[in-house]
Amino acid sequence: MRVFITGASGWIGSAVTDELLAHGHQVVGLARSDEAAAAIAAKGAVAHRGDLDDLDSLAAAVAAAEAVVHLAFKHDFSDYAGAGRSERAAVQRMLDAVEGSGRPFLLASGLASGITGRPMTEDDPSPHHGADSMRGGSETLALEYAGRGVHPVALRFPIVHGMGDHGFVAVLTRIAKERGAAGYIGEGSTRWAAVHRSDAGRLVRLALEKAPAGTRVHAVAEGGLPSRDIAAAIGGHLGLPTVSVAPEEAEAHFGWIGRFFGTDITGSSARTQELLGWTPTGPTLFEDIAAGAYALPA
């Protein structure tokens, strides 16, 4: 299958590209720079130059593909609302380009649901609707196209970790080193779900090959790790104490990531594992931390 991937050279996308190529698929990856294009080509995939704001280029690439995996996102936390609006515009244009074709359209989403007291499941609809909501409400928008001749699948990712990760856990590690202590908020009872990058890549390939239209799949290996334990693992690796940060001081201590670290982002993947035959086998988050995945320069 000829698959167009946005974010093909990124953290999750590069793992997905490797997985698809290893299983006989052709990959065309969106590249917004010469460096990204070279990385995509080095894997044996084809680079398509453009970015998420170049809607005509996106539509052309989508129209030429047999399936789409949309993983790119503007992670600009200084203008998160603007990033969401850009996301919605890009997803809308790509969906319109494949409407009526029956082609698979997989897109990255998340587990930030506002649900408390239990993990989010695949049966829970996204609470995010409209251009001004989180990620521009793109998951809800895409699943609506199941009745318009598209085969949409929502890929819900938790924290995706591994060697070379520069995401949320890397940011927390840098803050811990700067502050001289690994912090958590309040009692540290909020929880994050997690998955290793290799398991996330394999799940996307299985979802492309097996998931029915309108499905939500959860790339969750660990359903909910307490923030206090995450801080302790970071502190233990760095040789730093673990401290509680008062909720009213969280923004000053953690910056933008405090809003996420103080929120439950949990999920179950029981239905996904049964549907796709997917069993996570990669290292746990704490194993990655202990192994030096988030080691910082001296």
Task: Output the keywords.
alpha/beta; SDR family oxidoreductase; Rossmann fold; 298 residues; 20% strand; 12 strands; Epimerase_deHydtase; UDP-galactose 4-epimerase, domain 1; NAD(P)-dependent_oxidoreduct; three-stranded mixed beta sheet
Give a quick rundown of the structure.
This is SDR family oxidoreductase. With 298 residues, the chain is of the alpha/beta class. It contains twelve helices and twelve strands.
Describe it.
- This is SDR family oxidoreductase.
- 39% of the residues lie in helices and 20% in strands.
- By secondary structure, the protein is α/β, with parallel strands linked by helices.
- It folds into 2 domains: 2-159 and 195-221, NAD(P)-binding Rossmann-like Domain (Rossmann fold, 3-Layer(aba) Sandwich); 164-193 and 223-267 and 282-290, UDP-galactose 4-epimerase, domain 1, CATH 3.90.25.
- The strands form 3 sheets. It has a 7-stranded parallel β-sheet with strand order 3-2-1-4-5-6-10, with helices on both faces.
- Strand 4, helix 4 (80-98) and strand 5 form a beta-alpha-beta unit.
- Helix 1 crosses helix 7, helix 3 (55-63) runs parallel beside helix 4 (80-98) and helix 6 (168-179) packs across helix 8 (227-238).
- The protein is globular and about 55 Å long.
